[in-house]
Amino acid sequence: MSTGMKTIRQELGGRGEELAAAALKKQGYKIIERNYVTPLGEIDLIAKQKGLLVFIEVKTRQSERFGTPAEAVHPAKQAKLRRLADYYLKQKRLGEMPVRFDVVGITFSAGTPAIEIIVNAF
Question: What's the whole-model pTM score?
């Protein structure tokens, strides 16, 4: 496989992020960043909703065989997302802006995506 080709996992993740962004927009979120890369890692989606800056982790799975997508956002991942959010706030000079962390879990079952938005997940 050449370096220019996406893996199946990357394609699934990208498809999940597109579905997540569309579902969030329907819920009144305004997406301001996608795949924001920092030296510490990547934030899937950053949005504004009701005066809050929302950092969103998107987890996409083909099944729940190894647990739900949301269960993959374990305490270590949560701590990393908090560090990424702090980095973003400093980079953008947003100071003490109120923030929230949401998780969007997407499971493809028989080709049909089930989308779960967990508001204030941690």
Answer: 0.90
